[in-house]
Amino acid sequence: MQESKKRIVLIAVIGALVIGNAFFAFNYFFLYLDQQAITSEKNKTELNGQVLNFASMFVKKVLQADSEVDFETRLSLENAVRDLKDKEIMEEWQNFTGSKTEAEAQNSVKKLLEILISKIQR
Amino acid sequence: MVDNLTRRKALFLGILFSLVFFVSPALASETNGTVDGTYKYAWGENIGWINFGCSGCDVEITDDAVTGNAWSSQFGWINLNPTTSGVENDGTGILSGFAWSPNLGWIDFTGVTINTNGEFLGYATLKSDSSQINFNCATGDSCAEADFRVKTDWRRESMRNSGGSSGSAPRNPPPPPVTPPVIPPFVIPPTPITIVDNISDVINYASDFISYLFGGDKPATDTLAEVPKIAPKSFGLLWNLLPVKAINSFVFAPLPYDIRILANKFPELDKTLKSVGVERLSDLGKLTGVSLNIPGLANILNKTITTVGLENLSEIDKLSGVSINIPGLSNLDGQMMNNVGVGKIALIKGLPIAKFSPSAKKNLPAEFVFARANQELVDLNVALSVGERGEVSQQMSTLPGQTLRLVVKPISKASSVTGYFVFKASTPKVSTNSILRSSLTASALFSMNDFVEQAPSPFQGKAGDEVENKLVLSTFEYTDPDNDGIYTADVVSPVVPGEYEIITVINYIDPVLGTRQMRMTTVIDPEGYVFEKNNGKETRIPSAIVSLYHLNTGTKKYELWPAKDYQQENPQVTDVRGTYSFLVPEGSYYFEVEAPGYLTYRGKAFLVAEGNGIHQNIELASSTKWIEKIDFQTVLLIVVLLLLMYNYVRGRARDKVVSP
């Protein structure tokens, strides 16, 4: 009788533990999914922020410049464009910085702005 | 036997430890050394980082020489063993000789040494500008700012177990290059490394290690940002970075012809456009998605009256109550309007076009189609909207089956004025809140592009300009029976809701004027209906009584809207489809709906702008809806609870009986 009670208690405890494990596993799984979604959203937001920052800096410091763009600004722009880690933007940026003629520079600016706008994810 | 085994084990472990701790330094004493995978950067004060351990560099350090190439991201390859010279090693780690870069010229390695740990020390010198390349941060005491060095596994002979000196005497330096050296750019010093960086480095290494253990790829190290000291041409403000010609031609382009013509015809519209800063083509984007209401006939009449001047109306009080027929100042029965008096002018509503004064008729904008409904009692609101592509269209909305009076004034004598009712699309764009041209909100909205929702282009899918290409539903003729130069036509709006177009063609007698076309998109809004929701589906409610109340501006109270004045009924009883419809003038309204078995609905007050159909869909709640919410699960739950309670009460009662 005593043995039987012990067994029942044991089964109950194990059962509770199994159910608890299952519960926490499910909880963990759904939290993990949530976290993945939040991380993805965060990454997207961060990238958008970086693209917008660079675009804003480019417009303010380069397109609206009233004198030669100084070294510090160029360095900030270079760092900002590298932080984006986007090959397409980088290539167009390099095309712009390496422009040999006015037409080339204008073309690069147009393309760069277009790429930047298209990179902003909704 | 056991002792023997233990001894053997100890011997094996001893050999193993010896291999681990002593063989490694022996391996580092190779005569042919390579550059360390981590410590591979040297720092040129004018040329930035130089990588001696890149893929393709193939730098090899022997007792005689240093061979291979180094890579500068700004200036390209540096050849360490060019044909006429080369970096030499005297076998004890003292380097000399010259490396060659097509962009930097000769680089003198005299002064660079390799210490007993295989670390490069000292400076190499660029012959072109005498700037230096530092091989070890320790040399310049700059390790606190950036930890860099070039390290090899080559060791001098004395540090190796065997072998002898095999260094060769340095050759004479080559003559300086004929071509002038390129001005080396200035590169920013490396950023100081903080404790946080160190911690993040540790974390990075740990994650690299873990990914290595699990077969992951080691992430590529970031290249360093290098910026030339001399600004490239594109940063030099030498050029216009944006094509000026294209921008000028866009920014200074005038407004589209259609808008300019309308602005000329309607001074209010012109004023609105100017006040919100819409003066050029580039400003047109501010109007995208916004509807500008064009003044109706009543507004034009009111404007004509107000221009008479208040002083001329000072004696008008004496006429109050006198039966007199003054267009614009008296109502349809010929009585003076109550709200006309000194200092106040009534807004004239519902005056038939035939009763307009000659000056009002003269002020009527030409070549513009006005629409009125309910025997000219309601001016239909015509809105001007700009599509996504900048197309301008006039648009009005009305209810199905309404008799519309269309009014148009040609600019000269016309031989005929013909109208076409043309089908455009079956899905009507339900007219939402349009913004009055006089509204202050409009100004604020127009000035903010992002706040304006873009409306789909009304011209999308347009087959062409020819009327013949369209699906013509009916043709009608405008007539001018009283020869006042104003043509009118009565048409019945289609029964089927959808998007239509009224095309008015004026054939002028004057051959110079020829034939002119006016287009107006007409949206037939579906009628409103009364319904209830059952399991997410709508069920129409017939025989519901729909009452419309309007705000009486005189008493400032809501009253039942006098529908009979507008040839309609109020309240209305919904038909089998649960539909109702009101076509009302501008004002503030609310609905009250009653139906047997349903709770009385009283809606919120809403504004109607300048003659619109009301087509709200009204949901009624059943008066016995709470019963419907009880499903079998709820019933089961209640039963179980009751049983539990019963059991509890029985138990307590039994305990009382059993206990003494």
Quick tags:
heterodimer; A: 122 residues; mainly alpha; 4 helices; B: 660 residues; alpha+beta; 5 domains; 8-stranded antiparallel beta barrel; 19% helix
Please outline what is shown here.
The complex is a heterodimer of chains A (122) and B (660). With 122 residues, chain A is mostly helical.
Question: What does this 3D model show about the protein?
Answer:
The complex is a heterodimer of chains A (122) and B (660). Chain A is rod-shaped, with a radius of gyration of 28 Å. By secondary structure, chain A is an all-alpha fold. Chain A has one domain (2-119). Chain A has 4 helices and no strands. Chain B is of the alpha+beta class and 660 residues long. Chain B has 5 domains: 1-29; 31-206, no CATH class; 257-516, no CATH class; 528-624, Carboxypeptidase-like, regulatory domain (Immunoglobulin-like, Sandwich), CATH 2.60.40; 630-658. Chain B contains 10 helices and 37 strands. In chain B, strands 1-3-4-7-8-9-12-13 form an 8-stranded antiparallel beta barrel. In chain B, strands 15-18-19-25-24-21-22 form a 7-stranded mixed sheet, with no helix packed on it. In chain B, strands 28, 29, 30, 33, 34 and 35 form a 6-stranded antiparallel sheet that branches. In chain B, α4 (257-265) packs across α5 (267-275). The longest helix of chain B has 27 residues, at 632-658. Chain B is flat and about 120 Å long. The A-B interface holds A 62-63, 65-71, 74-75, 78-79, 82, 96-100, 102, 105-106, 108-110 and B 186, 188, 222-223, 225-227, 229, 231-243.
